[in-house]
Each structure stands twice: as structure tokens, then as C-alpha cells.
Amino acid sequence: MIKILKNIYAILGLALLKKTFHYYFSVLTEKSKVNILQNDSCKIKNKNVFFGYYDLNPISKDNDLVLAIVTGVSKNTHHKAAIGYYRLNNLNRFIKIDETETWCWQQGCRLRWSNIFNNTIIFNKLVNNGYGCIFVQIESGKITKDVNYPLYDLTQDEKYGLSLNFSRLQRLRPGYGYSLLKDNTVGKNAPDNDGIFLVDITKNTCSLILKINTISKIKPKPSMKNAEHYINHISINPNGERFLFFHLWTKNGQRFSRLFTADLNGDSIYLLENEENVSHYSWRSNNEIILTTYNKNYGTRYSIYTDQTNIRLYLPSGKLNSDGHPSFCPYNKDLILSDTYPDKYGNRTLFFYNMKKESKSIIGSFRSPLKYQGEYRCDLHPRWNNDGSLITFDSTHQNKIRTLNILHIENSLYT
């Protein structure tokens, strides 16, 4: 079988056949590898079980519960997804709390635990026939607060949130927004009435603090002319005083990106990265940010940026030279958890990187079936729990369906 595939590839030389050959060769010769003592999975037969993006943590503070989103096998998102949780000591039983119509494959529904209210979760959902957000007490299922605006991120005290146009985001970057409601900005390259919104959660009010049109005029590039501009990846720093966001634009099928920071009112805006295309991010402290970036001279690299300065710390490119989803250990800010996109065999790698030792440790390798492409892909999106003892990640290495996976970590593995 392998010999036949090799001969066909030699004759045709097609890129797709090459990818298919590499994938099935790896299937025949090796299995997904996990170098961890214990790997548990939340799964349901014939259902997708996942969480979403890597910047939120699905595990409760007491390490008892893990939040999850459950959907059918259909690739589209035009159906309701179940919101609920598993107990870590019983991963065979999903406990449903509610449903949401506003979710996507990459970012889920921005599901998270409340920092303020016990046993309460927060996620985006239709509220009063529009995109909104609700707070739900998991034991009673009671909605304790509903907000008329969808939230991308919140301050730690949960008094304020930041929002964007999820319909425009989905149209211009499928897999990251919602398509349930019409995008009213179609035909507007850089709308003056759209951008980043500050939500007062207590008052249930919203105000536009940064306009896309204004952002597009800050140190404009030739590629921005006649391009469609939009916002993604909003992240508030730990003390809630500043936030970062990506300004993106598309032209002739090509996507460009750069990174800004600003205070919570949209003032003191600072263009932190304007030369390299930015991809992923995480706050290390109130003024330090790790970014994965790309340019044609250096390729992909991991760097630590200091907000509102030109200070950069470039991490060793020999060990960190492919894009991933980085975040810092809660109690050791020199320890990075990240992953990779699929290699030619369809394997995604999960790893630790110790900045102080400049050492990289592979946690495991997880195969992604070929059907998971584009918007439907399943990135690992690894996430720490609150005390650094557990890691969760989404994957399709089991039964060719999405599962939410939990790794139990021992200090000896990364110290």
C-alpha cells in the first residue's frame, strides 16, 4: 500500500497527495504520543466536546469541575450548543446547564468561570433577540445577570467588559465570530460606527471607545488601501488598566495584522507591533506580553514585549520557530506552555519552554485527521488551571472527533 502511494506521488507530484501520503504513512507507523503520567478525556459518543480558545480556563478554582461545550457532528454552527460541565472524578457524565446559539469552533462562546460569584459561569448567548451575555448559577441553572452585549473579555472585578462586532468578525475571519445575526457593516471597509466597545456590566450600557476607521488611519500601510478592516483578540491585562487587541485587514485574499494596546477608556493608544504580522499573545504581567509574530526575514518567533516601549526580548529561534498558543504558568512566569500547528504527518505538538533554562520539553504529539481544516480545524489551545497542576486542551486524536483532554502535571516534568 505504501509503495503504491509512493509511486502515485512520484508521477503526479500533487501537494494534496503529498499531504495525504504523509498523513496515512504516519497512521500506519505510529500513534499519538503522550509523555504524561495521566491523560483523561471528556467525550460523548457521536458528539463534539471542546472548550474553545486558550486564553480562558475551564477548570474551577477547587479543581473539581471542568466546563465544556457539546455539539453535534455537523461542521456548521447554525444550531444550539450545550453548555455544561464534568466533574473531574467522573468524566463519563456531562451535566448540562444551558444552551447557546452564539458559538464558533475556535473561540467557543467565550465561556468562563466568574471570579466574583461562587459556582457561576459567564458566556455569550442571545439576549433580547441580540448578541448578549449571561451569568448563570450552575447548581440552580438560574440566570443571575444578563447583559445586552456580547463580551470578549472582562476585568477581574467583572465591572467592565470589552466587546466587538462578532458578525463582522465571523464574516472576515470565519471560526472566530458568530453568523446568527446579519452583519450590518457589509460594504464598509473601515466603518466609523464600529470597533471596540466598553460595556458597563452593572449598568448594562455600552459605548464605542475605539473606531475601526480611526485605528486604520494610525500609521497606515499601502496594503490597507481599499482593504476591509476588523478587530479580534481583545485581552485585558491582570490589573484591568490596559488591554491589547489585534487590528486586522484583508486584501486580495491576504490577511495582515498588527497589535495595539490602550487603556480601558480607549485612550493612551499605543501601536506596539507594526512591522511583523502578529498571531498569538498572552499577558506575562501588567506590562509584559508574549507574542508570536512572523516576517519574511526572521520567520516565526516568540518574543516578550514591554507595553508602551520598544523593549523586546526575542526567545531562541532554534527552539521556538513555529506558531503556537503560548501562556504562562500561574506560579512561574518563566515557564511557557504552548503548542504547534500540524506537521506534514498531521501531528500537533504540546510542549513546555523554560525561559530561564532556555530548555524545551515535549509533552506529547496528537494527530489531527485530514477532515479538520480551515474554520473547522481543532487547534490544541492548551490552558493552565489556576494552580498549574492541570492542563486542558482540545484535540481530535481520539475516535476522529473533538474531545476535551486533561493532563495531570507533576513538578518534576518541567522544573
Q: What does this molecule look like?
A:
By secondary structure, the protein is mainly β. It has one domain: YVTN repeat-like/Quinoprotein amine dehydrogenase (Methylamine Dehydrogenase, Chain H, 7 Propeller), CATH 2.130.10. Helices cover 9% and strands 43% of the residues. It has helices at 2-12, 15-29, 166-172, 212-216, and strands at 33-34, 38-42, 48-50, 65-71, 81-87, 90-100, 112-113, 120-127, 130-137, 143-147, 153-154, 160-163, 195-200, 205-211, 228-236, 242-251, 254-263, 270-273, 277-283, 288-295, 299-306, 312-314, 327-329, 332-339, 347-354, 359-367, 383-384, 390-395, 403-408. It has a 5-stranded antiparallel sheet, with no helix packed on it. Strands 2-29-28-27 form a 4-stranded antiparallel sheet, with no helix packed on it. β27 (383-384) and β28 (390-395) form a beta hairpin. The longest helix has 15 residues, at 15-29. The radius of gyration is 21 Å and the shape is globular. Mean pLDDT is 90; it is low at 8-12 and 14-30.
**Structure annotation, total helices:** 4
Euclidean distance between termini CA atoms: 44 Å
Per DSSP E runs of 2 or more residues, the count of β-strands stands at 29
In the CATH hierarchy, what is the superfamily?
Answer: YVTN repeat-like/Quinoprotein amine dehydrogenase
Biggest sheet character: 5 strands, antiparallel
- How much β-strand is present in the residues? 35-45%
Mean pLDDT: 90
